[in-house]
Design a protein that fits this description.
- This is Transposase domain-containing protein.
- InterPro entries: Transposase_21.
- By secondary structure, the protein is of the alpha+beta class.
- The chain is built from 20 helices and 12 strands.
- The strands form 4 sheets. A 5-stranded mixed β-sheet has the order 9-8-7-11-10. Strands 2-1-5 form a 3-stranded antiparallel β-sheet. It has a two-stranded antiparallel sheet with strand order 3-4.
- Strand 3 and strand 4 form a beta hairpin.
- The chain is globular.
């Protein structure tokens, strides 16, 4: 057919390789490679880098001096770069994104605001969407071409998560466009992958700023607007603006991104309020001083401007704040941008912890010997952080122990059953869970309420309602009932199944969706049958009532549409669940996740239904990246 066109042979160009076609049509993303210091993650251009890292943590600190090159045996005269960091240009990705047919029409669907309604079905209806402002004070989301992206930073092991396997940690920096309709946001084609943090270990809380800086610099420029030469609907070009919306990460990652102290900090364990480890049992957030965004920004700037590591350490230990590169964005608010991520906080946090620690479904741990006893941690004497990052002086040190090693999964040994259970006291304590009581007067100080709470809790501990040695499903009869109910349930094909051997080593580790299925579908009928078929005591009834609150929390979190009444109901159920744990299981140590969950209603009020902004899609992206064959050559190929 080409011969009939009568094109002169010298003018005919037929690429002989698919790579030439991809290059000529600019189908490949623009990848920028920088040299990354193996010690402190500082970035250098590949053109003319120094032989050793010259970065300083502070103006008065010594240089890093880590070699950036290494010699190889086969060619000693030509040293190789130790480590590269590859990033994708956000503006280049946006240009290709906006050149796809129909994409701009889909983005403009977020402009079609609906009438005021009591229900919230998407982040488009949320308070955050309506309050984002342009540089001149107008509603940012009210104009075509103004885009809002969520940010996720997370790490995965490309060698798999086997206990005895290799422990390599690569980090994804990814963004999702929230202007797209909900059913299109999670597609890998619509997620911007900025880059992968190089392994084998994670950057520390201070080093994370270096790998985020290229993206933040582009975001800062895009906030005021950048002229794109051509888009699918505007061949003559148009101005595009971008703002950073919610930051959706698990707990260790979001603390790194925000520059906040970790959850093991005694004085600054929460990024939303000033709760301390000693007051972690409080369920009334009104009695805890909230953090203030302007104050946080000032404290972070003071940390950045400190001239010595000792000054930085003092600021961090006092306020629990470091400088985050996100503060370069003029509009960035660490309080309204951060979210309590429900998948990790509720599904892999509260549900998993309740099933394992309280119900005895921790399948992969060996059972304790009969002579061992449960020795719970004191609620006020929580674990001391062993995270070197929180020492405040690790700016140029090698990557410290991973935050994930500090996730709150603690082993509880079997204990002796307490035969002196005071049933009347338990009944009275359960009646005290009335949530309609008047709030405390403003004259009541935090200290006095803390003492009252501690005193009440201490008196309950003396009668030890359940020392956690008598967990529900460590009873073989009850565990058999749970498995029978699980096997008898007929579920739709689109709902996964909980392993039939749940509660044993064969059952394996449950995933987030399996914990949800277990608690929402299987657990309640199983407990009803246990209560019906056995001479249930007041303790078992109280456990069942507490489970209903947890199930209600899960239902609201998973709802695709919520109302203000649902958000208030979530507050009530979270408060009742927490109070129930304090009364029914006084030996059970409060986890940081229990406190963070109390902030979830504010997140739903700010961002709308959780399924529209949670980390599911980013976790699937990590799963896809982890499945890419690497032939065990991690770090030797670009993104």
């Amino acid at each position: 057919m080409i011969s009939h066109l009568k094109i002169p042979r010298q003018q005919l160009y037929v690429p002989g390789d698919i790579r030439l076609i991809i290059r000529d049509l600019h189908l490949d993303p623009e990848i920028k490679r920088t040299i990354c210091c193996p010690r402190c993650f500082y970035l250098y251009p590949v053109d003319d880098p120094p032989h050793a890292c010259t970065a300083r943590a502070t103006r008065r600190s010594q240089k890093c001096h880590e070699p950036l090159y290494k010699s190889v045996a086969r060619n000693p005269s030509s040293p190789q770069v130790c480590r590269y960091f590859s990033t994708q240009s956000f503006m280049d990705w946006l240009a290709r994104f906006l050149s796809r047919p129909g994409i701009e029409d889909l983005l403009d669907k977020s402009l079609s605001t609906t009438a005021e309604s009591a229900s919230i079905s998407d982040i488009w209806d949320s308070n955050m969407w309506k309050t984002l402002k342009t540089s001149d004070g107008k509603q940012f989301t009210g104009y075509s071409g103004n885009l809002v992206f969520s940010l996720n930073v997370d790490w995965f092991n490309p060698s798999g998560n086997k206990t005895a396997g290799k422990h390599i940690s690569l980090g994804t920096i990814a963004m999702m466009c929230l202007n797209l309709p909900p059913h299109l946001r999670a597609s890998h084609d619509n997620i911007f992958l900025a880059g992968l943090t190089p392994g084998p270990s994670e950057p520390t809380v201070t080093q994370i700023n270096h790998v985020l800086e290229p993206l933040v610099n582009e975001l800062k420029e895009l906030w005021t607007g950048v002229k794109f030469d051509s888009t699918i609907n505007f061949p003559g070009g148009r101005i595009i603006k971008v703002m950073l919306g919610p930051i959706v990460c698990d707990l260790p990652a979001i603390r790194k991104v925000l520059g906040m102290a970790g959850h093991s900090s005694h004085k600054n364990m929460c990024s939303f309020c000033r709760v301390t480890k000693e007051k972690i049992d409080r369920v009334d957030l009104d009695r805890i001083r909230p953090r203030i965004a302007d104050v946080l920004r000032k404290q972070a700037e003071n940390w950045k401007n400190a001239t010595t590591l000792d000054e930085r350490k003092e600021i961090f230990e006092t306020y629990g704040v470091r400088y985050s590169i996100l503060f370069k964005l003029p509009y960035f608010d660490p309080l309204t941008s951060a979210v309590v991520e429900p998948m990790h906080n509720i599904f892999l946090g509260l549900l998993k912890n309740h099933g394992q620690a309280l119900f005895g479904l921790k399948s992969l741990e060996k059972k304790s010997s009969k002579n061992s006893c449960f020795q719970p941690k004191s609620r006020t004497d929580s674990e001391t952080s062993s995270d070197a990052d929180d020492a405040g002086n690790s700016d140029n040190s090698g990557s410290a122990k991973s935050d994930r090693e500090h996730k709150e999964e603690e082993t509880a040994c079997e204990g002796e059953k307490n035969d002196s259970m005071d049933v009347e006291e338990l009944l009275g304590a359960l009646q005290d869970l009335d949530l309609a009581s008047d709030p405390p007067s403003s004259s009541e100080s935090d200290d006095s309420s803390s003492e009252a709470n501690s005193s009440s809790h201490q008196s309950l501990s003396l009668t030890e309602l359940n020392p956690l040695g008598d967990r529900f499903f460590e009873n073989e009869k009850f565990l058999l009932i749970l498995r029978e109910v699980n096997a008898q349930f007929m579920l739709p094909s689109w709902i996964g199944r909980v392993p039939a051997t749940i509660g044993s080593a064969k059952g394996g580790k449950l995933k987030a969706d399996e914990w949800v299925i277990l608690f929402e579908i299987i657990m309640i009928p199983a407990l009803i049958r246990i209560l019906f078929e056995n001479s249930s005591d007041i303790f078992q009834i109280a456990v069942f009532q507490n489970l209903l609150h947890l199930s209600s929390i899960t239902n609201i979190i998973r709802s695709l549409e919520i109302t203000t009444d649902d958000i208030e109901a979530l507050r009530v159920h979270l408060k009742a669940y927490r109070q129930g744990l304090l009364v029914i299981f006084p030996s059970f140590p409060t986890k940081p996740n229990h406190h963070y969950a109390l902030h979830l209603p504010d997140c739903l009020s700010q961002f709308g239904p959780a399924p529209q902004w949670t980390a599911w899609s980013f976790e699937r992206l990590n799963g896809s990246l982890a499945s890419i064959p690497t032939n065990n050559h991690i770090g030797k190929s670009s993104v």
